[in-house]
Amino acid sequence: MVVETIKTLILGSSGMLGYDLCQIFPDSIKLTRDELDITDRAKVIETISDISPEVVINAAAYTDVDGCEDNKELAFAVNGYGPGYIAEACSAVGAKLVHYSTDYVFDGSRKEYLESDATDPMNVYGESKLLGEQLIAENTGDFRIIRTSWLFGLNGKNFVETMLGLSGKMEYVKVVNDQFGKPTYTYDLAAKTREIIEQKPGTYHITNEGVGSWYEFASAIIDNVVPCTNAEFPRKAKRPTHSVLVNTKTKPIRPWREALKEYLREREK
Length: 269
What we know:
Elements: E1 8-11, H1 16-24, E2 29-31, H2 41-51, E3 55-58, H3 65-70, H4 72-93, E4 96-102, E5 112-113, H5 124-139, E6 143-148, E7 151-152, H6 159-169, E8 173-176, E9 180-181, E10 184-185, H7 186-197, E11 202-205, E12 208-209, E13 212-213, H8 214-219, E14 225-228, E15 244-245, E16 253-255, H9 256-266
Parallel strand pairs: 1-2, 1-3, 3-4, 4-6, 5-15, 6-11, 7-10, 8-14, 12-16
Antiparallel strand pairs: 9-13
Helix pairs in contact: 1-7, 2-4, 4-5
């Protein structure tokens, strides 16, 4: 089955991941946040019913981790209840649902996490994303939840751009060296989504391969970075020390360092 021939709807198409999904699924129907507010249940059900897609890919999310601490109601509306409404609508029209979740559904007490491991989020963002997973599973059986981590891409604010910006303004850039995960290029994630659509329903861990700390990630981007501890760099939302997602269900995608090199080349074009 050729994915492009399937009637596909992308929600959150103007975001960083949404942008790359639009490149991978050029013939899809694309809706931005302004065109469909996923927190409006009636509108979500009406819109998906009218379009009657075969696949819905939800890339709409509230991803400001610290902002979620201050805006808990919004976080749960967008990341929790909204995906539940989408799942409800997908079930009604018989559409597959692909939804993106996060490494932050785990508390970081283990070195790495399988798809089947118990969740225990430690911040509002993780709690809201976990609620989204739960409501999707309650409202449709035909879902693929893709947990991913540390995203960077060409069409959005991300860690790579932050580092490049700070590097030009500061003599040294301090970055924590005691939080570990897997950086993931949104283009690679979007490309892998084509494969996941054809997999059986369930939860998938999809990241670029290779584990690193934020400091190691930064060191691959800029030269004037120095390590510090999480305790030296307090933030509003607690972050898991380890949030390494292990993919046990599909072939791995390329190492993050290789993907980062491509990203840095592409941003110069």
